Hints:
By secondary structure, the chain is of the alpha+beta class.
Amino acid sequence: MKFDDLSNKVIGCALKVHKELGPGLLESAYEQCLCYELSKAGIGFERQKELPVQYQDVKIDCGYRIDLLIEGALIIELKSVEELQRIHEAQLLTYMKLSKIGTGLLINFNSILLRDGIRRLVL
């Protein structure tokens, strides 16, 4: 599935969650509800996938976790913050580089309009 098709399906699921819950909850609540919507839509995902750091010849488990890995091809980083910052984009870009997955979505559920809280990133 192409990145745009997959990301649009995920965004559709996120919009359903945001429409139902609105802003103001913890990230973990949105994550669980988004997983429910992804399952209903038949979209494969891994939740809280471990992401080790490759340093020279050693893989080091530093506690990094991808919020959602969608069908092995799209990283979703969820937030529930007042405003997305550059550090949030840097975090997602780092996860994309470490995992060698070139596409990602940064979704901030703490937005009045969810479309204002979504950023698509491509390496």
